[in-house]
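Folding problem:
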Amino acid sequence: MQSKPIWDYIFFGTSLRYLQDAKEGMPAHGAGYASDNIESFFDQLQDFGLPVTERAAYELAQFRDEIAKSDDDHTLSSDEARRLGDVMNDVRKTCEAEAKGKVAFIVTDKRIDVRKLLSDVRGLMAPDVFDSLPDIAQYDLMEAGKCIAFERPTAGAFHLLRATEAVLRHFYCSVVHRNRAELMWGPMVKSLRERRSPPASELLDNLDNIRRSFRNPTQHPDKIYDIQEVQDLFGLCTDVINRMARAPQWTAPVMSTYASASCDA
């Protein structure tokens, strides 16, 4: 998967058109002129994965090498301009044929900021929370963000619930040091409720709600999320994760990348 600004596609088209429309007197050198556009065009062929067009552009490469030997103030003669235009007309035919086999997908807007879903999930959580989470939870939250952005909502829900359970395990182990319950969602929340000084009831109620209403049904193959549901779930899960990570009982994990969120952390 490759992220590219739409401007790159526009610039590719303008470079091609600029060279096609070469005229006598066009400067051969300097930023934005003939040589510079030829170099940019070859760079873009590589960036966009158009190797057939790149091979077909051998005459353009020869032209580039020839004018590279000219003086800095050289301008294209009528013959050079005509030749460049003819070369680009031929290259364009190959480029159009090859480009028809390439497909670009546009990420559409969501209720959650798509740019943050793709590359800054940290910014969708309370300050400093993301960096304090176990590595596996960070991984799952980043994957959930990408799944939501690319509209794979059921996959996004799995990652969100995995992240929440990983954080719950670490939170539980931060609170309970002896006689721990099995590291399963339900028993952990039940054990936390039975503490002499339990965590806030709002947090525990929300954790129970997520387990009953989302985590358990999601384990079954008949549960499918739509893009609106998974965005709602994102809000529920990040809320309880924020609450756990900011609770006074929370201790920072020390874990290797993507290690299991167990009580040994």
The two ends are 33 Å apart (CA to CA).
